[in-house]
Write a structure and sequence with these properties.
By secondary structure, the chain is an alpha/beta fold. The chain has 15 helices and twelve strands. The strands form three sheets. It has a seven-stranded mixed β-sheet, sandwiched between helices. Strands 10-12-11 form a three-stranded antiparallel β-sheet, with helices on one face. The structure holds pyridoxal-5'-phosphate (PLP).
């Protein structure tokens, strides 16, 4: 398929209007000088039908949650009700201008305020900022708050503990906020090695960034012990709640001792993750950290919603308020699910993952043979003797019509060796999950009987095996005329 730039024909235009109607209009009278572009932009010159066909074709060869099952572990790429998109598109929301006087968008502020109350109840935290635009952005806000808290106490701390199984954004956020990252090991059960943590935690350590269930889909059963160790040395606990699917309505991070949490509304709360946004990595804190929250936050006084600027705020972390449409979808989803519905979603997501794990266990040895949360880790280790890598298994899944799952966690050997992480989510039916399981079983047989079939997969996609290293290092972002 050609790039739209390759379809460009000099002088071809996509619209026509009677020229004489615009004869006496001077562009400079309509558009301020600074907004006028100085040089001519190189845009593709194509007709309307060229544009429509180009993008419709692209959308047809794309794969998404609306076309099939997306078992991408650690991503919660679940199908979300379309009604929530519709609500986010209501004109009262989409036309609200962030520079307007706040008395003109009381409804939007009310929604933000009410959503915050719900998130507080779901997580057990005392106050939220809704501003961060992604999970990693929320993490950065969280660790900056930790830094400021210690600075304010007169005893700044310089280290941050992050488990080896953590999402890559955790060490990155800590480092960006100026902390020295210290890695705590996992044990053979896939959870934090308590003795190692004890030996690392000291009075120069701000705290720990932890995910529970952790990034290998397991519940940190020693969380009370971890809390004691970290709080015991005056440290803070940061909860990476990007994947809240397994906990909704069952466990609240605030009750297990966490001081700060971030949630990815664009995973669990009705906005699909992926595609580069928009997202919302909202951050909740306990009372002792409210004064450090980024400004402004929404408050309510005598039924009037306004903005509050916390006293020792880490400052502003973005323009305007937040990715508002994501908040509308989260609010609508929480209300339509209700308390029991949220709990049911979490339970079904856990049941589905354990169903996949138990059915595929005989074919793909699990990394940890124990009860999992909302996602499970299988491995393709037993097929190495046939020259098959886990990557080949994932590629072959595309031929069966499934999006390949998450594979490999390079910084987390040996447990992560040749791993496949499956997160079925609560949105999929038993029939769909069974189809996936059957495809995986068929592939395990192919791996033994016809390994070449896997090594050259996928066979059914427009692009077969892309050179991923080249694609990352030398991306073609611009069409150069030859
Ligand atoms: C997805 C994810 C993140 C990062 O979220 P982004 O919105 O992609 O920045 C952080 N931690 C965990 C555990 C995640 O799964």
């Amino acid at each position: 398929m050609k790039l739209i730039y390759e379809k460009s024909i000099k002088g071809r235009i996509g619209f026509s209007m009677p020229e004489d109607r615009f004869e006496d209009i001077n562009v400079k009278d309509c558009i301020p000088e600074y907004a006028l572009s100085k040089e001519k932009k190189e845009l593709p010159e194509v007709s309307e039908v060229d544009v429509v066909r180009h993008f419709t074709t692209l959308s047809k060869i794309n794969y998404g949650v609306d076309t099939g099952f997306y078992p991408l572990g650690s991503c919660t790429m679940k199908y979300n009700p379309k009604i929530n998109e519709k609500l986010a598109n209501l004109e009262g929301f989409t036309f609200a201008h962030p520079l307007a006087d706040i008395k003109h968008f009381q409804g939007s502020l009310e929604l933000m305020y009410e959503l915050e109350q719900l998130l507080k109840e779901i997580t057990g935290m005392d106050r939220f900022t809704l501003a961060p635009g992604a999970g990693a952005h929320g993490e950065l806000v969280g660790v900056l708050i930790m830094g400021k808290y210690f600075e304010d106490s007169g005893k700044p701390r310089h280290k941050m503990i992050v488990p080896d199984s953590a999402h890559g954004t955790n060490p990155a956020s800590s480092a960006m906020a100026g902390f020295k990252v210290v890695e705590v090991k996992s044990n053979e059960r896939g959870t934090v090695d308590i003795e190692h943590l004890k030996s690392l935690m000291d009075e120069d350590t701000a705290g720990i960034m932890l995910t529970n269930p952790n990034t290998v889909g397991l519940f940190e059963t020693d969380i009370t012990e971890i809390t004691k160790i970290v709080h015991g040395k005056g440290g803070l606990l940061y909860y990476d709640g990007a994947n809240l699917n397994a906990l909704l309505g069952i466990v609240r991070p605030g009750d297990t001792g966490f001081d700060i949490v971030h949630l990815n509304l664009h995973k669990t709360f009705s906005t699909p993750h992926g595609g580069g946004g928009p997202g919302a990595g909202v951050v909740g804190v306990k009372n002792h950290l409210i004064e450090f929250l980024p400004s402004p936050i929404v408050c309510k006084c005598d039924d009037f919603y306004s903005l509050e600027y916390p006293k020792k705020s880490i400052g502003r972390i973005r323009a305007f308020f937040c990715n508002f449409s994501v908040l509308v979808k989260a609010y609508a989803w929480i209300l339509s699910m209700g308390k029991d519905g949220l709990k049911e979603a979490a339970r079904v997501s856990i049941i589905n993952a354990n169903y996949v794990l138990s059915k595929l266990k005989p074919y793909y040895r699990p990394a940890y043979d124990r009860f999992c949360m909302h996602e499970c880790i299988l491995t393709g280790r037993d097929y190495k003797e046939y020259g098959i890598k886990t990557l080949d298994i994932a590629k072959r899944l595309m031929d069966y019509g499934f999006h390949p799952p998450t594979i490999y966690f390079p910084h987390f050997e040996p447990y992560a060796h040749e791993t496949i992480m499956v997160e079925p989510t609560e949105s999929e039916s038993k029939e769909t999950i069974d189809e996936f399981i059957n495809a995986m079983i068929k592939i395990s047989k192919e791996a033994i009987e016809n390994p070449e079939l896997l090594k050259s997969a996928p066979h059914s996609t427009p692009i077969r095996r892309a050179d991923e290293t080249k694609a990352t290092r030398e991306p073609i972002l611009k069409f150069e005329e030859k």
